[in-house]
Specification:
Layout: E1 5-9, H1 15-22, H2 31-41, E2 49-56, E3 59-69, E4 78-86, H3 95-109, E5 115-117, H4 124-132
Parallel strand pairs: 4-5
Antiparallel strand pairs: 1-2, 2-3, 3-4
Length: about 150
């Protein structure tokens, strides 16, 4: 990997790169969604909401987004990662690991002791990554029902 690797807070100028990274996934492009995420996480001055990008040289090659959530069904405050993407060309280069460690370090500094996330059980790439970061099944069980 380049010596010019940087993990930093996202800025509005990163929006197009984030949308492009999102296109690597099978979802359709979601510019309005990403604009709202930027409004909530980049334009906010809250330390419990974190939107990081990984940059190599001048290119954004990954992002991770999370927030502190508290008291849902008696759960103590925890860091919750809800989005992560790394450019396919940069996978296996520790980009995701470095972003994950950075977001955890930031939460640790404000007293958070647990990190959680959720992914589809068939998403082997994401499951493998988070298991590699030490995440395991937690004490809470996700339940769902189709309502359409």
């Amino acid at each position: 990997m380049s010596d010019h690797f940087l993990t930093r807070i996202a800025t509005l100028s990163d929006l197009d790169a984030i949308i492009a990274l999102d296109e690597f996934r099978p979802d359709e492009e979601k510019p309005a969604y990403w604009q709202e995420i930027f409004n909530r996480y980049v334009m906010s001055d809250r330390e419990d909401r974190i939107f990081l990008v990984a940059q190599v040289d001048a290119a954004v090659v990954g992002f991770i987004i999370g927030e502190v959530r508290a008291w849902e069904f008696g759960s103590p405050p925890c860091g919750w990662i809800f989005a992560l993407a790394v450019s396919p060309q940069m996978r296996e280069m520790s980009v995701g690991k470095r972003m994950f460690n950075e977001i955890c370090d930031r939460w640790r500094k404000i007293g958070i002791k647990t990190v959680r996330t959720m992914t589809d059980r068939d998403n082997r790439l994401t499951l493998s990554f988070f298991r590699g970061m030490g995440l395991r099944s937690g004490r809470y069980i996700e339940l769902e029902k189709q309502i359409v």
